[in-house]
Amino acid sequence: MSSKHAKRQVALRKERFLRFGVIGAGGMGQGYCRILGTLPHARLAAVCDVNRSAAEEVGRKFGVPSFCDHREMIKAKVCDAAAIVTPHPFHYQPAMDCMNAGLHVISEKPLTERVSTADRMAAAAKKNGVVFAVMFQRRLEPAICKALDLIHSGQLGEIFRATLMVLEYRNQCYYNSGVWRATWKGEGGGVMMNQAPHMMDLFVQFCGLPSAVFGRTCTRMHAIEVEDQAEAMLKFPNGGVGYLYCSTCETGPGQMIELFGEKGKLVLRDGEMSFYQFRPGIRSHIKNCDDMWAKPDVFQVPLNIPQVRPSDTDYEAPFQVVQESQPGHAKVLANMVRHILFGESLATPGASGIGSLELANAITLSSHEGRWINLPISRSKYDALLNQLQRESKFVKKAVQVKRMTDPRLGA
Ligand SMILES: NC(=O)c1ccc[n+]([C@@H]2O[C@H](COP(=O)([O-])OP(=O)(O)OC[C@H]3O[C@@H](n4cnc5c(N)ncnc54)[C@H](O)[C@@H]3O)[C@@H](O)[C@H]2O)c1
Known about the structure:
Layout: H1 3-15, E1 18-23, H2 27-36, E2 42-48, H3 52-62, E3 66-67, H4 70-75, E4 81-84, H5 92-100, E5 104-108, H6 115-128, E6 132-135, H7 142-152, E7 159-167, H8 172-175, H9 197-207, E8 212-218, E9 229-235, E10 241-247, E11 256-261, E12 264-269, E13 272-279, H10 282-288, E14 297-300, H11 319-325, H12 328-342, H13 354-369, E15 373-374, H14 379-392
Parallel strand pairs: 1-2, 1-4, 2-3, 4-5, 5-6, 7-10
Antiparallel strand pairs: 7-11, 8-9, 8-15, 9-10, 11-12, 12-13, 13-14
Bound molecules: nicotinamide-adenine-dinucleotide.
Nicotinamide-adenine-dinucleotide binds next to α2.
């Protein structure tokens, strides 16, 4: 970190508030603007969008200066941190430029569309001594914190099977709402790049990355060029197996992560979590039981899920008030602010967002090569594939009706 950046960090802690610039003033970006207007110890200081009229309109609406080039926003020195809320292939350059200028950065999910650039973003944060976070807000949901606690405290034991089902239905009208949506150039992928990353991220946080994948992606029902369905078989380093299915064609119940371990089973299905314990554990029962038709006893364990994480109440800012009325995005932004100003541990470090992206890239690569792919994947091979898909794309998006509007259920 340069001495200029180090001095600025000390000054920030004294001033006790962070000035944010929001890069990408679309549906989600405007959600950031609203949240930053209410968050303790944070201020919205600027907005930036390549679309000049969008930038000016949002700047006027929130009473802050607007820019149509993020480099101009950096030069103006009105921000300590930047939130990158552009379409995913356009996270990388603004993030790199901001970090190299000493700004803290939070990037929307997925970090980028390819692991090679995500690696570089994580390295740039380290080199410049700035905080780098990723918006995986679902990690802060109380049930997810509880699941992570159960897994990491060893209550499931060694994991033998992990299943992920992501049902994120979208209609054609959704895909037609932006020229960048569901194109190789604008998103670098389909359901695994845009709609499934939250569940894929939780899956990776729960059971780590597989050592190999065999994937198949296809475009089943939508007039788009990228996948609206992805499936894969996964092998884990301990010999465990996994199955993945992501779709924007299917709706109804079934969104699920299920983990089967030596000591128990964890099922997260449609927002409900259940935990079962085996007595005795699987290996011991298989080896030692002398009743040929017996199975281990299975007990459902009642779960006590605290609604507020302990650290949410630690600081003088009455964060609980924000938490009650604000969505996951506010929790992540508040955590980032408190991390920078007060040293709270960062819940969503940028580098931790690389795993789910690597999994998505590996499945795409496997589908195109028709074979098992080992992880970590070759960055250069994946870059070559994606560059080719982008170069050869002949898809013409018809009937686009631009709508800068994010999913109202996010409440951002
Ligand atoms: N965490 C979540 O739950 C969540 C929810 C919705 C969207 N997102 C993510 O947010 C990002 C944006 O999605 P959206 O729905 O707001 O899209 P959007 O189309 O509504 O807005 C994107 C905006 O970025 C602008 N833009 C493009 N390139 C730019 C650049 N280089 N510099 C500045 N502005 C630029 C566009 O003009 C547009 O106004 C995506 O990466 C998406 O995955 C995350």
